[in-house]
């Protein structure tokens, strides 16, 4: 008996920090008054991008007079927790539910419950499967295909005069994820449409992490060499930054010996751009809190909105890196 | 052939087969080290060894834990904690290039991870919690702790900080991670084979109660082993973080505990405790590291990564099973069995 009690205390000590983490979640209370009560079921805090996204939404809600309260739940990348959070929002009869779904499937039941309770649902960032399209009002998020196209347009223009063909390495995101699939599709769609003479030397997943981006790039370098390679296209900046290190350690100059495009645009990514180590950044913008609040108010007022609202996103080339760096929020 | 060499034979053959596949796919340069412009040894195989250093450190610690009939699931999280503490301390300081600061950061990270390891050991040895449960707690909570340390951000250390040398530097042209991993392997091998410690470990793993009655302080040994495992995981995290110049609380060392257990098993150490093979573990790590490059070199797409890994592990597991080998060799063995009686063959073994 005694032994178990001690173990319980031990376990409790280590679980405390986690519990404390969860307690932060309702700190996003709004500015009072008789505005809207909004429930936001966020994916988690798995990356700097996500943290910036959560901060942006919480700040925008706090600053917005039309929003009385934002109930913020961090689902720690667990769909079960998110479904539970949405159910709680329904019980608490919030005015609008905002959901950033962890995965695309399995939302039919709980979203039907929300519909039955007459609570409109807005998706933020990620989407859900097409069969459930009637169960949400609109999705506000990044257009990953458009991001791929932007990258492709720059590549097609930059290498238009490359007579002997453009040799490309690609670092894909997590296999099968929407951003990885769409950024690839959009990119090569434009290259094909523009009639660029190119060859994919190799294309592998770096799982969106710096660690795998670096190790895959090291293998690319030992397998293919870097002498004939013109362009590296990395689906996010963590992988791109890892690859830049691998290129430098192999004795080449990233950005000069090989041109580099990254998607995302974090502070670290822009810093690498300022240092001349990469050539083009396609932004994937997490700071859409204010835009989200506008959509939420429109939806609550019953205005008709498009099924998909793209987040405002920019593209930056070498001349713009330095000016943009101070504006970066993550 | 001694039983030790016999145990190592199959993993070594698999590793050689993988190397041959790579040489066929990319040429003999795969195995021959080259010298980089900065005087550091490079080339495909050296890169594999360098990248595998964190996994080897963790797998060595895991081998010792498994020898005591335990398991440590928390090593991936401890990796993240070690990386987070060191990077956060360094970026909070005014001058990231100060050698004293880097030394303090590394020491503190190692002390914390060793304490965490010891805590696991205390839960297992003194509170009698099953190892899988005791270490599961930290596997879950550890990344949360690492996130608290970094404030949810990914701290990035300047490239000019000496800390990055731990992952990128070289001593006598050989990359530092390889030095650290080789030293750890040698030290642990000497410690367990040249002193009585190895035998005590095997006896604790074989039967803790009998060991205690025989006068072995089995609880102390268990705590020590988990402490070493935590220390190894922390050191691995430092190397990983130094290589990237950053600490990712969410993804750093993610699932490395499973790769480590895999390497231990490939190396011939059984999960039931008792006998252990540090050298076998090292070969297991080399197989896993080489396999990841092989997939790219033979031109398989990323989707194949997990399946290919599973196939190789499956083959190794089958080859190591005496039952399977007997079953597959049965049709060929019939004739000798009729001419030579079975007991003679047994004796020859």
Corresponding CATH architecture of the largest domain in chain B? Orthogonal Bundle
Distance between the termini of chain B: 9 Å
CATH domain class name of the largest domain in chain A: Alpha Beta
Number of helices of chain A: 11
Rg of chain A, nearest Å: 22 Å
Largest sheet of chain B: 2 strands, antiparallel
Which strand order spans the largest sheet of chain A, edge to edge or round the barrel?
A: 2-1-3-4-5-11
Domain module count of chain B: 2
CATH architecture term of the largest domain in chain A: 3-Layer(aba) Sandwich
**Strand neighbour order, sheet with most strands of chain B:** 1-2
Query: What do the pLDDT scores of chain B average to?
Result: 88
Share of helix of chain B, binned? over 70%
Secondary-structure content class of chain A: alpha/beta
CATH fold assignment of the largest domain in chain A: Rossmann fold
Low-pLDDT windows of residues of chain B: 344-349
Q: Largest chain-chain contact?
A: A-B, 41 and 46 residues
In DSSP terms (H or I, runs of 4 or more residues), the helix count of chain B works out at 15
Distance between the termini of chain A: 49 Å
State which percent range the strand residues of chain B make up: under 5%
Counting DSSP E segments of at least 2 residues, the number of strands of chain A comes to 12
Name the CATH class of the largest domain in chain B: Mainly Alpha
